[in-house]
Fold:
Amino acid sequence: MIRKVVIVVLVLAALGTWALWAASWVAPQHIGQVSQNSIHIYNLKEGRLWFGIHRNRKPLAWDDRYTRQVHIPMWFHITRYRGQTAYRRYDGCIFLGSTTVVLAAYPAIAFIRGPLRRYRRRRRGLCVTCGYNLTGNESGRCPECATEIEPS
Structure:
């Protein structure tokens, strides 16, 4: 049951990120400014979702020595700015195409896995439900799980 819920959530998340990705190419949007002590999405264009996280006070002086970047190609990019005051700002972007692929991978595998398993079991002469070896069985039922066997 939990597996099915996880699959449904991942499919919905993948559809949502795919819709954002498609919208970013069709109609790029500048959503808004980033204000203090908050997280805002402020741009959606070219397959990327740009966001900002601003903490504490307004900046007084900037020092580039405090700038740090984390970049994983085709996944995300985050830049941290820290001034000489207690102000901190993080700006970043998430690549929506690769996020969609990653979110859709598990549901796709789960969707293909069942039919593939049944095909292999049928071809090897095993019970489709439990995998019991049915070589020489003439009763028409699996002795392990009582599933009816289709005549080949």
